[in-house]
Each structure stands twice: as C-alpha cells, then as structure tokens.
Amino acid sequence: MSATTPPPRRVFIKSYGCQMNVYDAGRMADVLAPEGYAETDSMENADLVILNTCHIREKASEKVYSELGRIRALKRDKAAVGQTMQVAVAGCVAQAEGGEIMRREPIVDLVVGPQAYHRLPALLRQGRGAVDTDFPIEDKFGHLPMASREKARARGVSAFLTVQEGCDKFCTFCVVPYTRGAEVSRPVSRIIAEAEELAKAGIREITLLGQNVNAWHGSGENGAQWTLGQLMRRIAAIAGIDRIRYSTSHPADMDDALIAMHRDLKEAMPSLHLPVQSGSDRILKAMNRKHTAAQYRALIARVREARPDIALTSDFIIGFPGETDADFEATMQLVRDIGFASGYSFKYSERPGTPAAEKKNQVPEFVKTVRLAAIQALILEQQTAFNLAAVGQIVDVLFEKAGRNSGQIGGKSPHMQAVHVDGPASLIGHIARVKIIGVASNSLAGALLPVDYQTADSNTLIESVA
Length: 466
Ligand code: 5AD
Ligand code: SF4
What we know:
Low-confidence stretches: none
Largest sheet: 6 strands, parallel
Bound molecules: 5'-deoxyadenosine, iron/sulfur cluster
Number of strands: 21
Number of helices: 15
Strand order of the largest sheet: 2-1-3-4-5-6
Radius of gyration: 23 Å
Structural class: alpha/beta
C-alpha cells in the first residue's frame, strides 16, 4: 500500500435484541461504506466498534455495560501498540441512557439513537462526545442509502425490510414508545423500490419488520389507502419474491384484509407471531393491551379459519405487577387451549419511566422464577409436538446455507423450522421439496424428494447431481 493511500477502515457492529436491530445494523454499514469502512466480523481488527443495543428488559441493557468493560481492555491494549479504536453505542439503550453512558464509560466516543443513523458519518467526524438522540422530523429512511445488491447478496436469500417503526400503543411495561418514538409507516414507493432491489440481488424471502408492523398503512399505488394485507400482496407480485413474512403484530391491528391475505396469498408463509402477553383480563387491562383474552381467542379462531395450518407463536410476560396464581393459571390455560408452535416468555422487568415500574405490587423474583419454568415447560412440550407432527410430511424448503456436516445443506420450512438434508450446494437460494424424516434438537431432518416430485425451481439442480 502506498504512503498516500489511507488504509481501509474496518467497522464491527454487534447487534442485540430484535430483528429491527439486525436490519438497522445493515443500514449503518451501508451509510459507512462511502466513508471507507468495510465490515469485519472481528472486534479486535476494528477501527470502529458499534454496539447496537436493546433496552427491552434489564438483562439486555446490562449486557451493554459488560461488553463495554471488555472493550475498555481491548482499547487499552491497542493504545499500547499505537492503534486507535472508536466506540459508538447505538440502538435503544443509546436512546434511553445516552448521557449516562457517556458519563459511565469514558471509552465511548459517541452515542447515536435509532432515528439518527443517517447522521453517523457527521457524528464520527465530530469526534468524542457526540450524542444524537433526537427524534428528527425528517424520515431517517429517506436519508439512508439503499442496501447495495452486493450487500444483499452477501446477506443470503432471506432479508428483513423495515416498513414501520415506533409504537403508539403504550403498553404499561414497554419502553419501545419512548426509545423508538411514535408510529411511522414508510411510504409504499420506498418499500417497493427496496423490495425490488432485494429481489434483483437474489433475495427470495422478505420479512417485513415493524414494532407494530400490522399497524402499517399508506397511500397505495392505486390512490387507495392500503393496510399491511395489500402491501403484502404487492410485494408478492415482485418477480423472484416467493416468500413473505411479517413481524411483530398487535392483536388490535389484525384487520380483515390481513386475515384474508393469509387465506389467498400463496407467498404469505403460514406463520404468525402475535404476542398476547397474558391470559388474564385483569392483567391485560393493567398492561393497557387493548384486548381481552376472549378477543384474542376469537381472533386466533378467525386466523385459523383462513389458514388452518398456520404456526402461531406468541410472547408472554410472567410476573407483571399484581399477577396472582389465578392470573398466571389463566395464561397457562390460554396456552393449553390455543396450542403454539413456539413462544417466548420473559420475567417482567421494571423499565424506568414506564407506568408499570411505578406499581407497588411487584411480584417477588422467586415467584417469577417458578412461574417462568412452568410456562416454558408447557411451551417446549407444544413446540416438540408441533415439530414431531411434521415427520412424514412433505414441505417446500428454501435453502439458505451449507449444513454443519459436509454434503449437507440447511434451510427453512414454510413454518420457519430449520431443516437440513443431504443435498447439493447448488440448491442454496432455491426452494426444493423435502420429506421430513426426523426431529433433531433444534431442527428437522429431511430427505430431498426425487426429481419427478420436485418444484420447477429445483428439479434441474437436483437432476444435475443425481
Ligand atoms: N419486561 C419483560 N418483558 C418485556 N417485553 C417488553 N417489555 C418487557 C418488560 N418490561 C417483552 C414483551 C414483548 C417482547 C418483545 O418483550 O413480551 O412482546
Ligand atoms: Fe411495546 Fe409492542 Fe406494546 Fe408497542 S405494542 S408498547 S412495542 S409491547
């Protein structure tokens, strides 16, 4: 390298928490690329480390401070050999505690909230002490460069696409309305342009993201007001996009058009993540969830009528303030009655600034521990039953990567289950028909069907190696 060419700079981005942070990490890399930063997967080699943080529960935020402790040692070691490293804290902890992070951790050079990523290059130039946690009036997406085709390709065959951000629901336990701000829907034209770009780069599956994704709405190309169902249909019409999913939804925003879309649209994958949080009406009311347990059950019945094979998943908060044994039992009963493909359950975590944190009737930790173990055992039982039921079935698998063992490839079933088979690497990026033959701990084992039974997409690829 000549003395005049600056060495390429490397950025290491570590994301915590939700899928939107994964998407945002990609956009941060995109905005830094023209500044000469290439992504690295080694923190030790990085000139810039970005922690893309999560504030949803206490444990998630604590991880940031312990990671910063490790980075402090690394930065010191690098300084000892004359190397520098900038450290940025992004994401929801940055938004909620920006000033405090700067005070607590002198190694942090800058703090940038989720609405300000397009200003990262300017903040880096500003140097140590820059904090940007404004909620700007302008749309950050309008200022972020579109993911390049090469990058999309590097990200594989399945991509996230944020269509909505923020939340106006104000569940009393949740920090999201404070960290991500008010609900904003991205315009149809921008979403379609990004989806087309992803399709051209070889992406076959798109997951539309939003904190409250089914509240997305916008002015459609035909001038009519669209909700998420219409947007899904439009994206499905893009050549090359074979699978669409969306996450995360609120029960109060599941409109008829979205339910009908699950019945009509073959590209809409039969899985739905629909958090209920509790099965007790008293607790749901205290959570400000805007639905009862009976309304949730009725909604699930309508969704199942539209798409009987849909795989349902949910989130549950255990030990919300005032939760009694009877309230918890109501949650367990709801889980037993509905039958989930899997689920996420969390101990209630007091988040500063949220109404529930002020409540006097907090549930003791050991009670939360016992209840959490009970619900997790029940959900695991249901998840195991769901996976066992797949054995013997024939499913279309979108292959994403090489498997752990040589000669193996891995992908996802329509129900989001990981499936591995013995098969040619040329199938990666394609959908092939597979018979499920067994259940492993976190995945299903399958066998590729013979060519005559294959999809149009995959038969020649299989024939070529047969
Ligand atoms: N404590 C525990 N779990 C929480 N969640 C959100 N806020 C809290 C909290 N304060 C859970 C909810 C939500 C998921 C993303 O995180 O179940 O659906
Ligand atoms: Fe948080 Fe979801 Fe409730 Fe919004 S709807 S406040 S993101 S839990």
